[in-house]
Amino acid sequence: MSKVGIGVIGAGNISEMHVDGYKQRDDVDLVMIADMVPERASEKAAKHGFAHHTGDVDELLARDDIQAVSICTWNNSHAELAIRALRAGRHVLGEKPLCMSVDEALELQKVVHETGKHFELGQVRRYGQNATVLKSFIDAGDLGDIHYAKASMLRRAGNPGGWFADPERSGGGPLIDIGVHCIDLAWWLMGKPKVTSVSANSYSTIGNRANITTLDRWLASDYDPAVNGVEDLVNAVIRFDNGASIMADVSYSLHIPKETMLVAVYGDKGGAELEPSLQLVSEKYDTILNIEPQIANPSFDFQSFHKEIGHFVDLVKGEAEPFVPVEDGVEMIRILRAIYESAEAGREVTIER
Ligand SMILES: NC(=O)c1ccc[n+]([C@@H]2O[C@H](COP(=O)([O-])OP(=O)(O)OC[C@H]3O[C@@H](n4cnc5c(N)ncnc54)[C@H](O)[C@@H]3O)[C@@H](O)[C@H]2O)c1
């Protein structure tokens, strides 16, 4: 196959990771980058060597020299742009979250099936070396049946502002933005059971903490400290059809001494903590063992984006199997929306299918 022509839609922060991943490959052409802010597309095109740039997504989707696109825009356009790209005959790598609502998710899933084009979801943390190693232990049965997991990402002053803080464009705050990383990881490691109910709480008592300027934070390209309509903190118990459960908590703003991330899974034969650092727990000869795998990256590393992009290119070339299919994104959106619904209603919510 000749080189894979790449289009990138959305020229903000995360597009850097995608483009950097494509630049590791000698079998792709960076054909065009598009952004609703045309100057941003033109700057990125000059910086990274895209042959073309545009402020009009239709112009990008009409190009026959583009076979595959990365969608790196706000959450409110993920489903719509993916559907347009698939219908235009392009393969799609979509940034997380899949989209904002269950209806959008189901529509996108339908179009993926109808068009037969590849759709991969950018759940980049599944590509971490720590995650890959742990999954191989789980698949070999070392942890037994996993009945419990914890998924937690707690920031102190971590609201990125701009569109992230505007629910019309983001679909929510830390739950849909960073909760989608840690809950997806736990759920994937558990073998992707079907959600049956959730019970959750949401709090918005601290605010976006734009006043804290002494700490680094991820900021939207159009940062505006005045915008904030999203929650500070969500916690939830998520129940599954196999009896397993996840306890999750995620925050942008919380009075904790340091930012923390914990993803842990516990089975009847062993347990493991993936983040902050991979560690397994087992039992042998009536003794409990803590096992520390000797790997180059025991915590999440940004090389994972190279792996995610490389896998997508291989998939498009017919040299890899799908890894994060649209169905996984649909189930995750079901979980996240049910969590918001439960927090809003102040009671447990059961999942209708
Ligand atoms: N995988 C990760 O770890 C990770 C990290 C950060 C962000 N993200 C995801 O990446 C996406 C973008 O986040 P970001 O941090 O790059 O935001 P950003 O604000 O830096 O960039 C978004 C860009 O998209 C453009 N855009 C928005 N809607 C558009 C549309 N309909 N058509 C054309 N251009 C459009 C904006 O002008 C902006 O330049 C989000 O969905 C976010 O959840 C993923």
Summarize the structure in words.
The structure is a single chain. With 353 residues, the protein is α/β, with parallel strands linked by helices. It has two domains: 4-125 and 306-325, NAD(P)-binding Rossmann-like Domain (Rossmann fold), CATH 3.40.50; 126-299 and 332-350, 2-Layer Sandwich (Dihydrodipicolinate Reductase, domain 2). The chain has helices at 13-23, 38-48, 57-61, 78-87, 102-115, 129-139, 167-170, 174-189, 303-316, 326-345; strands spanning 4-9, 28-34, 52-54, 68-71, 91-95, 119-122, 146-154, 195-203, 233-240, 245-251, 260-267, 271-275, 279-284, 287-291, 349-350. The strands form two sheets. A nine-stranded mixed beta sheet has the order 14-13-12-11-7-10-9-8-15. It has a six-stranded parallel beta sheet with strand order 3-2-1-4-5-6, with helices on both faces. Strand 13 (279-284) and strand 14 (287-291) form a beta hairpin. The model has no long low-confidence stretch (mean pLDDT 97). It binds nicotinamide-adenine-dinucleotide. Nicotinamide-adenine-dinucleotide binds at residues 9-14, 34-37, 40, 57, 72-75, 77, 95-96, 122, 124, 162-163, 177, 220-222.
